[in-house]
Amino acid sequence: METINLESIFEAKLAKNEMIEPKDWMPDNYRKHLIRQISQHAHSEIVGMLPEGNWITRAPSLRSKIVLLAKVQDEGGHGLYLYTAAESLGTSRDEMLDALHTGKAKYSSIFNYPTLTWADVAAIGWLVDGAAIMNQVMLQRSSYGPYSRAMIRICKEESFHQRQGYEAMTTMAFGSAEQKQMAQDALNRFWFPTLMMFGPPDSESPNSDNAVKWKIKRETNDELRQRFVNQTMPQIEYLGLQIPTNSNIKWNEERQQYDFSEPNWAEFKNVIHGNGPCNKERLKARNEAHKNGEWVREAATAYAKHQNEKNIAA
Amino acid sequence: MSDSQGPLWEVFVQKKSGQPFVHCGNLHAFDKEMALQNARDLYTRRMEGMALWVVLSEHIVASSPEDQGSFFEPANDKIFRHPTFYQVPDIIKHM
Fold it and tell me: Could you tell me the domains of chain B?
């Protein structure tokens, strides 16, 4: 009886669009879903630092270097906001990091693709951050309070990321013929991996149903993907670039939206399961960074313990 | 939750002097000084504030959601605590 009552209070809150807070009763599956989604989101921010970090030392100007540093630092901060949001559900940072480092937890498949040229870094800012923002704007209204609040902060900070990417892309697209070709290549290579970021099609998305029912997500994968294509197409046209290879983007007068080809979902699954071009490299880099920081954590723990003892003695 | 990352701290930021300190999030740190420096790096990278408070999360005492109704009930039926409860003659312009 008790559970039924608590569940109806929870449902009533959702119906009234009230937020669920850490101390509120929530169904186990809601909690589990959130821990999975938020921790994967956090991992994506942290792993996402790697492909861009790869270019910090080779940024083509001091201005672009400063901007890229600031952007990568933001991504680290976003990871931290999200980890503590997940911790409020009863998991620990160590558990989450362990799941990432052992390959048990997933992160956004996009970061398993390499950044081969400077234009790729521009494409990441423009397309990948653009797609992320679309998803995150929706998540600002997520039903779990700490997640929603983290998203509001993240969106505020993230808005410069997409603009700087598009600015860099503009420089390339309006530059020399060689630069324009680099921009086109980057668009071609990042197009489908970016569309994959919204997740599998609604017809076969295992986690979507509950997420929408519980108002963790407010829109479906396909809805967001369509909106992204609609928004991005005029940006491609402005750059004077061709539509990406095999994308088949075409205005549909009847639907008043763009038609486009679906990504190769077999490739998506393959990358998710660890077989993308950079999965091993990314995991190795994360594991090494964590291992190399071990002495810092040990020293800080010892110092904190010493300080505590001193306080008690005094 | 304390693990290898140190305890959790809550962060409050004051936008400008004279304004209230507002909760903005939390972070892990091993001591006060580190908590303050991390808070600066994490929450004020864009001049969001000119002053910070950090406090160990375990030192926060919070009301519990189950008791929400009864806990706040005493204030529920006291509309006379609001200025709009009172009638002021129309000819009095400023009050």
Answer: 1-60 (3.10.20.520)
**Contact residues on chain A for B31, CB-CB shorter than 8 A:** 300, 303-304, 307
Give the mean pLDDT per block of 10 residues along chain A (314 residues).
79 94 94 96 97 94 96 96 96 96 95 96 96 94 96 92 95 97 98 96 80 90 96 97 97 97 96 94 96 94 86 74
Distance CA B4, CA A83 (A): 14
The verdict on ipTM greater than 0.90 is no
Residue A74's closest CA among B28, B54, B36, B46?
B46
What one-character DSSP code corresponds to residue B75? G
- Residues with Cβ within 8 Å of B7's Cβ and at least 6 positions away in sequence, in order, are B28, B29, B30, B56, B57, B58
Q: How far B15 CA lies from chain A's nearest CA (Å)?
A: 15
Residue in B12, B42, B44 to test binding to A, most A beta-carbons within 10 Å: B42
Inspect the interface and report whether the beta carbons of B45 and A77 lie closer than 8 Å.
Answer: yes
Flag if B65 and A24 touch (Cβ within 8 Å). yes
Q: How many CB atoms lie within 10 A of CB B49?
A: 20
Check if the beta carbon of residue B26 is closer than 8 Å to that of residue B11. yes
Chain B residues close to A73, C-beta within 8 Å: 45
